[in-house]
Amino acid sequence: MSCPEGSRILLDDAALSEEYLPSRLPARDDCCKVVEDSLAMIRQGRRPVHLWLYGSPGSGKTTVAKSVLQKLESQGGLHYAVVNCWERDSFYEILDHLVTSLKVFCAEEHRTSLKLERLARHLKGKPFVLLLDEIDKLSVAERARTLYALDGLGSITLICISLGLSMMHELDDRVKSRLNARCVEFVPYSPSELYEVLSYRASLCLASGSYSPKDILHISSLSDGDARVGLRTLRSTALAAERNHHEVIMDVDVVNGWHSAQKPTATVLLSQQTEDHRILFDILSRYREITSTKLWNAYRRHCTTVGRHPVAIRTFSSYITGLVRLGLVDCQRARERGNIRLLKLCNIPSDKYGIGAYPDCVERKALSPDNQLLSH
Questions:
Q1: Fewer Cβ atoms within 10 Å of its own Cβ: the N or the C terminal residue of the chain?
Q2: Tens digit of pLDDT for each residue in 229-277?
């Protein structure tokens, strides 16, 4: 069944993003209760109980943690911060982000010991939770250093999120003993659970009557227990139906949506990064090719124009490294004096429903030592 061009099936794109925190978390009530009960202890003035959430991708770990933290903060008496360890993969970067975001006095001080001292003083007597998402992205040494130092402050509750428990078992016995984390496993969603999750999200963002339970069941069966894949497929399916001017979602739209969801778009990849990552990528998209120095200058001019505080040059370098690792940007040594890099946008095909499609031929790169950026 076709419909006029311009008809909409997907009414609210945000409700299908990984950053969206729904008011309901189907099939994760038990996990929510464990996290909430553990955090309730620090609101009662008791010693923090650290949490280690682990499980396969798309099993709801981050969504559950963020939802519970947001709920408890709204009730008062609890504050929290979230650090994605893919973006900040060292103890120094994590600590620097904390003292900056919390506006701790002397945050510009470079000495780690003084930063820790100021942070401890700032948090004294205040229940505070730090969520370390994708902590498996830290090396074993950086992971141990981060956890040992932050636990030593005595006033921070840590929530660590990883794919498996091996990331905790790799730690030195002294660190594991000190951390003494409560471990919570997130098993993959069953087909019926994922159907419930996707049905709820569809009710929030798709036009009434544009889909059937059969469509949601089909997407659930294709997603293999991974809610991230399911949400991407649901979004891609709705867009495929719109592109084909269908009034309702059809089987061919589901199939096309699933194939499209297997190649993350730049939009999807960047949605998991910071706003500054997206600004840098947008600038680079306009130039296609630019030196690291010129990108830094263009980024600072943009921040001045929009009244945004630019990140430090060290963080800028880390963010560019992250874009290279995602396969969105290529980095080569520029033919200029000094350690200047030439940054090029990877060959990402045009996509009217996203910034671009992740090409089959591009692998996510682990940077060689020569590519650990950047001199300006």
A1: N
A2: 999 999 999 999 999 999 999 999 999 888 887 766 676 677 667 888 8
Is domain 190-262 in CATH 1.10.8.60, yes or no? yes
Q: How far is CA 196 from CA 28, 60, 161, 304, 313, in A?
A: 11, 13, 24, 46, 45
Q: Which residue has the tokens 């005595």?
A: 154
- Distance from first CA to last CA of the chain, Å, rounded? 57
Separation CA 165–CA 300 (nearest Å): 41
pLDDT (0 to 100) of residue 263: 63
Question: Domain 267-371, what fold?
Answer: Arc Repressor Mutant, subunit A (1.10.10)
Distance CA 314, CA 330 (A): 19
183 touches 54 (CB < 8 A): yes
- State the chain's mean pLDDT as an integer: 82
The reported pTM is 0.70
Count of H-run helices and E-run strands, the chain: 15, 8
- Residue 146 CB burial class (10 angstroms; 0-12, 13-18, ≥19): buried
pLDDT at residue 49, rounded to an integer: 84
Which CATH number applies to 29-186: 3.30.70.1150, 1.20.120.350, 3.30.870.10, 3.40.50.300?
3.40.50.300
Domain locations in the chain as residue ranges: 29-186, 190-262, 267-371
Taking the C-alpha atoms of residue 286 and residue 352, their distance in angstroms, rounded to an integer, is 16
Residue type, 244: N
* 119-124 LR contacts (CB < 8 Å, sep 24+): 119/95, 119/153, 120/153, 120/154, 120/155, 123/153, 123/155, 123/156, 124/155
* Closest to 339 in 3D by CA, of 373, 369, 309: 373
Instruction: Kindly provide the residue ranges of all beta strands, DSSP E only, lying in the chain, ordered along the sequence.
Output: 51-55, 79-84, 128-133, 156-162, 182-186, 289-291, 329-333, 341-345
pLDDT attached to residue 7:
60
